């Protein structure tokens, strides 16, 4: 198929959850996908607004693509679940990017709102396809293929996280590694996808963790039913879809099955601040947790050396609790 043009996708925010779907959809329609590079050692963040680091990175990556693509893909994500909503920054992201790029590039900002029939995933991608000159049939087929690739990618995510360097994790043409050597320590990392996988935020924490011989798990390991089950006893609903996933995953992993749990947050994230306080109070009510728990908050000034020191100290705590004579041995997860 002849290349129709280039679609630029900023390496930020929900790129780290849905890139496999987006990438496949556009390529199936004959468009080449261009993804922004990381900041690197000398990269500078564009301080377009006083926002959280993930949003600043969205603006920075979008601006870096304005001369490299025909269109930028910055969807207006309102709701990715029938009952829950996204953080407000996702609704405003296309508008912020449009201001930052000063109208120098076309922006595909189609709304995705699964609470609305007019903005369902299918309807939204049909409209995107129409804007790009594709028929409804072509757009449907491209979306179907994208969903298949996304499902496969998600199923293999834990193997890819533990078997590939972060720079290769989202390269769809790089196959998922086979069986890997088991580690003596297993740690669950919980947080928004961009906090987990954006090395400009977390300083490539997964590489640091694997260098210590630790196996990594994330909330992708859990099904939506498992998340819902963990939240079933709450007296009040959590309406942010990402917040539900984070709290459900924390509840699940803090009960056992892993040797430690790390909650990754971004400074200035209001949702994370509320969730962190909620988890603290829940632990007090239920008498703490079975496993060590570490909270790491990131901003643009976070240093890699200090992060490694904290991980090494956390590893020491986990090893002490696993020692044969320890009074805090973690119960094995029921099969």
Describe the structure.
There is one protein chain. This protein is an alpha/beta fold and 335 residues long. The protein folds into two domains: 6-153, Rossmann fold (3-Layer(aba) Sandwich), CATH 3.40.50; 178-322, 3-Layer(aba) Sandwich (Rossmann fold). 47% of the residues lie in helices and 13% in strands. The chain has 14 helices and ten strands. A four-stranded parallel sheet has the order 2-1-3-5, with helices on both faces. A four-stranded parallel sheet has the order 8-7-9-10, sandwiched between helices. Helix 13 links the parallel strand 9 (260-266) and strand 10 (293-298). Helix 2 runs parallel beside helix 3. It is globular and about 65 Å long. The termini are far apart. Mean pLDDT is 88; it is low at 330-335.
Gist?
Helix content is 47%, strand content 13%. With 335 residues, the protein is of the alpha/beta class.
